[in-house]
Design goal:
Belongs to the peptidase M14 family. Keywords: Hydrolase, Metalloprotease, Protease, Zinc. This is Peptidase M14 domain-containing protein. It comes from Aequorivita aquimaris. The protein is globular. By secondary structure, the chain is an alpha/beta fold. The longest helix has 17 residues. The chain has an eight-stranded mixed beta sheet with strand order 1-2-4-3-5-9-7-8, with helices on both faces. Strands 13-12-11-14 form a four-stranded mixed beta sheet, with no helix packed on it. Strands 15-16-17 form a three-stranded antiparallel beta sheet, with no helix packed on it.
């Protein structure tokens, strides 16, 4: 069976959309604790459990954590897809047995349950846990560090979501990104960084089958307040995963699939089994640029502008009644020659209005953009289905 066919029919359907909290994963933990060890090494600032799952019994110890930022849930879905894959008995059994005998994978599926419930990047105290690696001021940070020091892992996996603002010079969007964090201010190529780079190259090559030209890497400026940089500095290879936007999939259901394939490549289940022969290939992965918007209207005429301009529209993610609503706003107005978007419309010199107002202002929330002289001509309209 092709892995794509397996995924289509067997991914974890209990987790959907962008709003994933402990309430959603408790049923899965109850199911898997029969087979795998599920412990609670710590609690959040609000007293919620921070569960840790142990899979496999191999000598290579891997520690991963998802939703360190509470509103970044795509990788949590992908990790439960991966667990479902490992747990099944019908396909890829030799590869799964090899994984279970080679690795011991410890996984925090949700490091920041309070932030997940609030749908915020920070925890309940407004602290970014990925800037708390030195201060260790929060219970969640202390929990991760305690487990890290107890396990002394061979590899760490730091799972995140990235915003839909990243792309490349050629106009393609950055759907998945990786980083081998720096270990010092000099950004030296240390042994641990080389291992992380080699693993990233392996995943990058596999993903070219699915999203060619849409995989990037982040700038590796050193920040010892970040967990990845701290662990890399301690000599433990650490990989940052960033799940981004794929076309109009604001639920990020396709992106979770690409993260799933990345994990299979990382653990030598699919793709090139041999490690990358040259870590320098890592630097051939294009670096992310902040050059993308959700929508751009080109060649528009505005009441307060003498020349035609482009109007960039971006979505804000708002939590309402346990549902994520995507609210559009005006992000930028100008020539935007070096900007791209998932949707681009040429309004061909039409004078446009938003919310019945003549003047478009950066930062304003909008519902639709129409032709001033023909209000039946709608150039942009908030899509009600973009709700997760």
């Amino acid at each position: 069976m092709k892995i794509e066919d397996w995924y289509t029919n067997h991914f974890e359907t209990q987790l959907r959309g962008r709003y994933i909290t402990m309430k959603h994963i408790y049923p899965l933990l109850d199911m898997y604790k029969i087979k795998y060890e599920v412990s609670v090494p710590g609690v959040s600032e609000k007293g919620q459990d921070i569960p840790l799952i142990k899979i496999g019994n191999g000598k290579k110890v891997v520690l991963g954590w998802s939703q360190m930022h509470g509103n970044e849930s795509t990788t949590t879905k992908a990790l439960f897809d991966f667990i479902r894959f490992i747990d099944q008995k019908e396909n890829f059994q030799s590869e799964i047995d090899e994984f279970l005998g080679t690795y011991t994978f410890y996984l925090f599926p949700m490091l920041n349950p309070d932030g997940a419930q609030l749908y915020t990047r920070e925890n309940a105290n407004g602290v970014d846990l990925n800037r708390d690696a030195q201060d260790l001021s929060q219970k969640e940070s202390k929990c991760l560090r305690k487990v890290f020091e107890a396990l002394r892992p061979d590899l760490c996996l730091n799972f995140h979501d990235q915003r839909s603002i990243y792309g490349f010079k050629d106009g393609k969007a950055s759907t998945i990104s990786f980083l081998s964090p720096a270990a010092n201010k000099e950004r030296s190529i240390t042994p641990s960084r080389i291992i992380a780079m080699e693993q990233i190259v392996k995943m990058y090559k596999l993903l070219q089958r699915y999203i060619p030209g849409q995989v990037g890497r982040y700038d590796d400026s050193f920040n010892n307040a970040c967990v990845g940089d701290t662990f890399q500095n301690a000599g433990v290879p650490t990989i940052l995963f960033e799940a981004g936007q794929y076309s109009q999939d604001y639920h990020r259901e396709k992106t979770r699939e690409f993260i799933f394939y990345s994990l299979l490549a990382l653990f030598n289940i699919i793709g090139d089994i041999e490690p990358a022969k040259n870590y320098r290939d890592y630097f051939n992965i294009p670096e992310n640029l902040k050059n993308y918007n959700d929508c751009i209207l080109r060649n528009a005429k505005l009441k307060d502008k003498r020349v035609q301009v482009s109007v960039a529209i971006q979505y804000r993610e708002i939590l309402r009644n346990e549902t994520i609503v995507f609210e559009p706003f005006i992000d930028e107005i100008g020539s935007l020659k070096n900007k791209f978007a998932y949707i681009e419309n040429n309004v061909e010199g039409a004078e446009i209005l938003t919310n019945s107002q003549d003047i478009l202002t950066v930062g304003d929330n909008i519902s639709e953009i129409i032709d001033k002289n023909d209000k039946s001509m709608i150039y942009f309209q908030r899509i009600n289905s973009i709700i997760a």
